[in-house]
Amino acid sequence: MPEAAGGAGGLLDSLKALARSLLAIGQTRLEIISGEIEEQRVLFLREALLTVIAAFCLGMGIIFGAVFVILIAPAEFRAHVAALFAVFFFVACGALFAVLRAARDGRPKAFAATIQELGKDRDSLQ
Fold first, then answer.
1. Sequence ranges of the domains in the chain
2. Cα–Cα distance measured from residue 96 to residue 111, given in angstroms and rounded to the nearest whole number
3. What is the pLDDT along the chain (126 residues), one digit of tens a residue?
4. DSSP conformational letter for 1
């Protein structure tokens, strides 16, 4: 009987150790996921802000473009100033869209580190 009790205790200890290991792995994976979610949130907010600024610049360009057409009548330099503002905002809008596209194309795939770690876990269990 003492041998059976020792064997059961050893099995129970092994199961507890396995459970602790699985929980530690799960905790690590959750920490990785939470870090990646935070990173994605920051990237999204940055892109949203750039989009709003680009939309504002586009709107200002359209407004000043319309003002340019209205002010094209001979009034010395008013039309030229309005045209410069319109060109400025259109160029700013184009530059912001280029920055936005570069930021979107250059960012890593969402949850890439988590997917990689889970793949390593799967491979180690085989």
1. 35-125
2. 27
3. 455 555 567 888 888 888 888 888 888 888 888 888 899 899 999 999 999 999 999 888 888 887 777 777 666 777 777 787 788 888 988 998 999 888 888 777 767 777 777 778 777 766
4. -
Give the single-character DSSP code of 11.
H
Residue whose structure tokens are 């200002």: 60
**CB-based contact 99:49 (threshold 8 Å):** no
Give the tokens for residue 111: 């949850």
CA angle, 44 then 48 then 50, to 5°: 120
Helix axes 2-70, 78-106, angle to 10 degrees: 160
DSSP state of 109: P
